[in-house]
Amino acid sequence: MDNLIIAQSPSSPAIAADWNAGVISMRGDSYPENSFELFQPLIDWVEAYLAKAGRPLHLELELVYLNTSSIRSMMDIFDQMEVAHKKGQTVSARWSYDAANERVGQLAEEFCEDCTFPFSIDVKS
Predict the structure, then answer these.
(1) What is the value of pTM for the model shown?
(2) Which of 21, 24, 91, 93 could join 81 in a cystine, given CB atoms 3.0 to 4.6 angstroms apart?
């Protein structure tokens, strides 16, 4: 399978999924006009990776703002990771955010509470 690169725009995050390293990184704001169109290739990539790679998957997030539809897409990704974790696959996530952005910190905490796989939150000052 190939790597996935989605360029950052003013309303969407930079997304990089590295098949060999088993790492997905997402950075920036996420309020695209059509979040399904933006996130579906990543959701498909995660599904394929978890089904075929046989290696750990780590998600690195530095998201600044997410609209409601982006949150729903993130939930889909976390749900896939949760299912994989319950099957014994190694998955993890780390969400880093600026301490001044309390809203995204609360969102990260809410996601973390719903996940049983390793999920860390780092506050940058």
Answers:
(1) 0.94
(2) 91
